[in-house]
Amino acid sequence: VSMNPLGYPFEMFDDFGRYRTEEELEYPEHIKVKAPDKGDYTRNQYKTLPLNTTGYLAGTGDENLDGEVTDAIDLITRLAKSDRVRQSIIRHTFRYFMGRNEMLSDSQTLINADQAYLSSDGSFNAVIVSLLTSDSFMYRKEIEDSK
Question: Which of 18, 44, 74, 112 has the lowest CB atom count within 10 Å?
Fold first, then answer.
């Protein structure tokens, strides 16, 4: 139940990721045109219903994010503009490349990675370079050995 408000916006895409505005009611009682049993690939045509792609984002702690979204594009656009989402992605990138969670001593590394992203007009490569040239990365062996 709690995933549906985030899943509905993505109904604008079918199982193969193709854009759609209607959903076919693929049950025998909804067949409009039955496909022939022989010949080239054909398929039944079904009655359709318009899609409702309205969803709801809640619990982010960011009032600019939370609220109703009209479709997946609206949701993605809202997430892309969020400082909180950007910082979360950078934090998870840090964790991946460092192989550990961040510590208080990594604050400057995270700030620098965020600034690299902002000053490069959103380059993920700039974030990676910032992380891999940081003290947190360069001296990670010494930090690990001192535990």
Answer: 18
